[in-house]
Amino acid sequence: EVLGEGEYEEGEITQEEYGTKKSTSLNRVTLGTFHSICAKILRWHGPHLSTLPSLSSSDTIMDGNFVIIDQSDQLKLIKEILTSLGIDLSKEKKMGGRGDANLRPITILNAVSQLKADERIATLFPNQKPDENTRKLSKKLLQIASLILP
Questions:
Q1: Whole-model pTM?
Q2: Where are the alpha helices (DSSP H) in 50-131?
Q3: Same domain for 52 and 80
Q4: Which of 37, 34, 41 is nearest to 9 (CA)?
Q5: Which residues pair with 18 in a beta bridge?
Q6: Nearest C-alpha neighbor of 100 from the set 110, 113, 90
Q7: Residues in the chain with pLDDT < 50?
Q8: Which residues, listed in sequence order, are joined to residue 15 by a DSSP beta bridge?
Q9: Which parts of 4-45 are beta strand (E)?
Q10: Do both 63 and 89 map to the same domain?
Q11: Known Gene3D superfamilies for this protein (predicted)?
Q12: Pair 87, 103: CB distance under 8 Å
């Protein structure tokens, strides 16, 4: 594929070259954005990465079957899930003025991100007790879950 002139910012495109230690000839050349090359590496070497100690405690198997989505797509997905659960965000806003702050998709997305971070911390430091902020956040997350889940 030929890159169009002026389509990309400086530093947006990178080239990775793969060779062997014994030879200076290249086995393959991969050209793409930093993020697209990283995604390819994860797809190519995912099963090997799954054996790393930082990932081995997880039930996740990196088999290359994944999708990377940005925050706007994540928010759209959360809205779709809420709609499929029969939660009408526009109705909530009309009834209560601002609506229920716990049902804002960004609040849910932030809560999920925090849960993932808390799980990683708990995995890395299993003997550490949760601090007051973590306990408050856990209580808040349970409140959000009770509003969403039947």
A1: 0.50
A2: 53-56, 71-84, 89-96, 105-124
A3: no
A4: 34
A5: 28
A6: 90
A7: 1-2, 95-101, 150
A8: 31
A9: 13-19, 26-33
A10: no
A11: 1.10.10.160, P-loop containing nucleotide triphosphate hydrolases
A12: yes
CA distance 3 to 14: 12
- As a whole number of angstroms, the distance between CA 32 and CA 38 comes to 10
Biggest alpha carbon–alpha carbon distance for the chain:
70
Quote the domain boundaries for residue 53. Answer: 1-68
Same-domain pairing of 44 and 23? yes
N residues, the chain: 150
Q: Looking up tokens 């990465």, which residue turns up?
A: 49
Return d(Cα 53, Cα 58) in angstroms, integer.
Answer: 9
Residue 149 tokens read as 């889940």
pLDDT tens-digit profile of 59-91?
666 777 778 888 899 899 888 888 887 777 775
With vertex at residue 105, the alpha carbon angle to CA 119 and CA 88, rounded to the nearest 5 degrees, is 130
Structure tokens at 76: 């759209």
Q: Which pairs from 18-27 meet CB under 8 Å and 24+ separation?
A: none
